[in-house]
């Protein structure tokens, strides 16, 4: 047995395995959807990206409204039962904390706020998560009046020091806590 040849083969195999690991890491960093899970896709809102789970469909400009830079919706027939939306330059604010107060003020009257907490968002060091619940009004293709909804807002400052908002609204129990957390963890400030 040629020991030197065996050692060279092991070194080559180790280098190949290391290269594969490094390349796999680069691939997940390049696409937010790939990092979140199989079948996930990403919204690109110019200065921010966020992933959404299978079953959601990206909305065009006419469907999402003028203040929303990007959005995806989950529907059940003609009813929208979930939505992930992004607003750039959401509020005139100098910090994520101030912007989060604005987000709390913008949720539907009668919502139950769960408070805000500082979180890590890639690309910024100033971001907050606001959790809340509210009751659907049953208007404009939303779930029937009285349906309980889960809301999560991710608010922060982008690289231009302008506030952004990622808003997740979904019928309570329609998405798992794990999927909501994956959406939150996928938020990435790019500009």
Report on the structure:
This protein has 191 residues and is of the alpha+beta class. It is built from five helices and ten strands, in the order ααβββαββαββββαβ. Strands 3-4-5-9-8-7-6 form a seven-stranded antiparallel beta sheet. A hairpin with an 8-residue loop joins β6 and β7 (127-135). The chain is globular, with a radius of gyration of 21 Å. The protein starts with a helix and ends with a strand.
Q: Average pLDDT across residues?
A: 83
**Numbering strands along the chain, what is their spatial order in the largest sheet?**
3-4-5-9-8-7-6
Output the structural class: alpha+beta
The beta-strand count equals: 10
Helical content class = 25-40%
Question: What profile does the largest beta sheet have?
Answer: 7 strands, antiparallel
Query: Alpha-carbon distance between the termini?
Result: 57 Å
SSE arrangement, N to C: HHEEEHEEHEEEEHE
| Estimated radius of gyration | 21 Å
- Specify the number of helices: 5
How big a fraction of the residues is strand? 25-35%
User: Rough shape?
Assistant: globular
**Spans of at least 5 consecutive residues with low confidence:** 1-31
Topology of helices and strands:
Blueprint: H1 3-30, H2 32-36, E1 41-44, E2 48-52, E3 57-58, H3 61-64, E4 70-76, E5 79-88, H4 96-106, E6 112-118, E7 127-135, E8 148-157, E9 163-171, H5 177-186, E10 188-189
Antiparallel strand pairs: 1-2, 2-10, 3-4, 4-5, 5-9, 6-7, 7-8, 8-9
